[in-house]
Input
Amino acid sequence: MVIDGRRFFNKLFVILIWLTCALALYEFISKSYIFIVYRETVFGFQALDEKLFGGVAGIFRSKVFFEGPLALSQFCMGASLFYRKHIKILIPIFLTAIFANGRLGILVCGIIIFAYLYQRYNIATLIKRPWVMILVTFAVLGFMISGILLLDAASIERFKEVFDTHNAGNNARIEYWINGISTYFNYDLNHLVFGNNGYFLQVYKNNAENGWITLLLNNGIVGFIYYLFPILLLFARNFLRLNSDFIFVVILLFCMFVQTFHLGASANLFYWLIIYSLYRPYAFESKK
Output
């Protein structure tokens, strides 16, 4: 019996997504984690529990088998980009992002679903078939209503802060960006080329809150180009051909500006899986 590795992986991955959604729902309803991690933090050795991740507002955020809600939210972003053309899989991913209360995860998953609906039912189809317009409208409203019903007032207020330029958290993120760029350009030649892994984290007790800047700091210009070049190639190819995947390449670029998609085993795997899935059509073309 021959096992198709790609199909086997895909089936296993879909099962994992549904299992993650089910466990996230269980945590969301029970308001308790299935397990808690204990580790050293900037505040000393402590439990990464519901209270810690809930913050001052006391918001419950599911994390399932990840260390924290941010990792689960990042999982949702990666999965939604990978399964960007499969609405039946995008729905549980979007719900999981809501259960994790990850602002960026909800935003990215929502945009990907909207992009899918836009591509699936193009403008010409909407004009010719009013019922399709009604269907898409109800689908969008359904996603919005599900988010409102599942999130409490504090969560919705927290989500609005994403676009608040005066928010302390957003200002702190920009400050990390500035410090990251400043730190990189103060490196010696060796570290400019190959990076100084962990130095910024040691000094500022945090990463640079930006995937591209973190790449420069930890892996230098070599690592930066290694990750950026495939995206630039995809960007150029999709832009020149006006390919439907162009919007998803832009979303991936955006995600790396505010996330560290290359850090961690699962996030790193997701990055290259997404790159592979975006590049795969061209691989088939070259074989013709």
